[in-house]
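ok new one. same drill as before - structure tokens go in, u give me an amino acid for every spot. 154 of them this time. try not to just spam alanines like last time pls lmao
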């Protein structure tokens, strides 16, 4: 979570009072994002969901969760959550996320049409993830100034 918190701290720098709080993404005390993780022997997946907008009338259908973060303070949904759209535009969020992600990864642009064409071809999915060796991790950490702190954890 600290890695995604640092990434999104760059995305939301100067916007609202952004924090990673009890595994939620918040502006002040109002949640606008959450996540789920799956960690298995050979794989790790982290997924983030942001609340862009909602219909107030639909909040009445939601029950209070059995487990809630302490900072919720038993507040109802409307007092606890906020809309991301009230803090930034979609295009600003996308461009800031791309820029923040560039500090950790090498990115390349692709046209949507080429992605759709490639995806529509009937091909068999072949997983490409694999465990990296200690040597590969060290090489990547020393090659990137933004990952320099990673090298100290070996």
């Amino acid at each position: 979570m600290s890695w995604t918190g640092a990434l999104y701290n760059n995305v939301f720098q100067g916007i609202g009072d952004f924090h990673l709080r009890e595994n939620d993404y918040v502006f002040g005390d109002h949640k606008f994002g959450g996540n789920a993780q799956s960690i298995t022997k050979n794989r790790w997946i982290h997924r983030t969901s942001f609340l862009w907008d909602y219909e107030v009338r639909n909040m009445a259908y939601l029950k209070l969760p059995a487990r809630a973060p302490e900072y919720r303070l038993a507040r109802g949904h409307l007092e606890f959550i906020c809309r991301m759209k009230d803090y930034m535009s979609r295009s600003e969020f996308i461009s800031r996320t791309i820029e923040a992600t560039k500090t950790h990864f090498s990115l390349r642009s692709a046209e949507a049409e080429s992605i759709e064409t490639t995806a529509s071809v009937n091909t068999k999915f072949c997983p490409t993830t694999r465990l990296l060796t200690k040597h590969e991790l060290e090489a990547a950490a020393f090659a990137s100034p933004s990952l320099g702190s990673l090298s100290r954890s070996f």
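The chain has two domains: 2-109, 122-154. and btw The two ends are 19 Å apart (CA to CA).
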